[in-house]
Amino acid sequence: MNVALWIVAGLLAIAYVAGGGFKLILPKEKIVGFGPSARWAEDFSAGSVKAIGAVEVLGGLGLILPAALGIAPVLVPLAALGLVVVMIGAAITRIRRREFGYLMADLVYLALAGFVAWGRFGPESFTG
């Protein structure tokens, strides 16, 4: 179980740091131009898109670094819980925009982040 949690957390960390990093670096107009899956950014200000990117980068780093460095590993499940909240917001945005085709990907990320939060708060906690 511990290995599965590390693998899922690692893959999520890569996805969130990369995706959030793009949101931080690129202007909103370029993000919207990536295609239909990124048109959600039309509903948000440029500052909000940057804030979402920052939260994703911090959440992605929080999935790995605290445990890997042995500094406050309790932050791992908290980071995962924060990413669950981000993905709930993403799912709500998809539903409001009627982008049901892209909703499934958001729900998968939500479930994976929820798995890490559950596993690190419970059976494979770093504090127990």
From TrEMBL:
Q: What kind of membrane protein is this, topologically? A: Multi-pass membrane protein
Name its cellular compartments. Membrane
Q: What's the domain of life for this entry?
A: Bacteria
Q: Which residues form the signal peptide?
A: none
Does the keyword Plastid feature in the UniProt annotation?
no
Give the GO cellular component terms, alphabetically. Answer: membrane
Tell me, in one coarse class, where this protein mainly resides: membrane
Annotated protein name in UniProt:
DoxX family protein
Q: Which organism is it from?
A: Rhizocola hellebori
Taxonomy-wise, where does this protein's organism fall, top ranks first? Bacteria, Bacillati, Actinomycetota, Actinomycetes, Micromonosporales
